[in-house]
Amino acid sequence: MKFNDAPNPEIEQKVVSRNMELMETEMSKLASEESMGGNAGRETIGGKKYSCVGLNGYADQRTGMILVFGNF
């Protein structure tokens, strides 16, 4: 799918499904191996502080499909 193509719900759903799968597997695995806080900082939500984690990833700029997560 090219950026200027008309939206195709079937293709968009495949992209969203694949991205969710990668976030639930590869991204979560990578996040568990990275140190939290540090340069990624902390965020306060509802009065509770949460450590953040910074990850790198690449996505196809035309489709939005995530290609890879890594520690680049």
* Shape verdict: elongated
Average pLDDT, to the nearest integer?
86
What's the arrangement of strands in the largest beta sheet? 1-2
Oligomer: single chain
- State the end-to-end distance: 27 Å
The share of residues in helices is: 25-40%
Query: How many DSSP E strands?
Result: 4
Order of helices and strands: HEEEE
Rg from alpha-carbon coordinates: 15 Å
DSSP strand (E) fraction?
15-25%
Q: What structural category arises from helix and sheet content?
A: alpha+beta
Total number of helices: 1
Low-confidence stretches: none
Report the biggest beta sheet as strand number plus sense, adding barrel if it closes. 2 strands, antiparallel
Number of domain units: 1
Key structural traits:
72 residues; single chain; alpha+beta; elongated
In short:
The protein is an alpha+beta fold and 72 residues long. It contains one helix and four strands, in the order αββββ. The protein has one domain (9-70).
Written overview of the protein:
The chain is of the alpha+beta class. It has one domain. Helices cover 35% and strands 24% of the residues. It contains one helix and four strands; from the N terminus they run αββββ. It has one helix at residues 9-33; strands spanning 42-45, 48-51, 56-59, 66-70. It has a two-stranded antiparallel sheet. The longest helix has 25 residues, at 9-33. The radius of gyration is 15 Å and the shape is elongated. The mean pLDDT is 86.
